[in-house]
Here is the input.
Amino acid sequence: MDTAMSNNQTEYLSRPATAETLGELVRGKPYNERTLINWELDGKGPPVTRVGRDVTYFWPSVMQWLRNQEKAA
Here is the structure.
């Protein structure tokens, strides 16, 4: 898990750190960074914050997005 999450100094994660952390949480191994890019392009991934060309993910928003993926059986 990304050190930013473990020491709670920041709630914003880079795309690579988000892919790693979210993948480990959901499926036990990191997602490829390209997966998040594709999800963003398809409009189905977690929300992103863009500052110029830089992309970052606000972890509480990622967790909210994950909760919103829940479907009734």
The longest strand covers residues 54-58. Helices lie at 3-6, 15-27, 33-42, 59-68. The chain has four helices and three strands. Residues 10-68 form a domain with the Arc Repressor Mutant, subunit A fold (CATH 1.10.10).
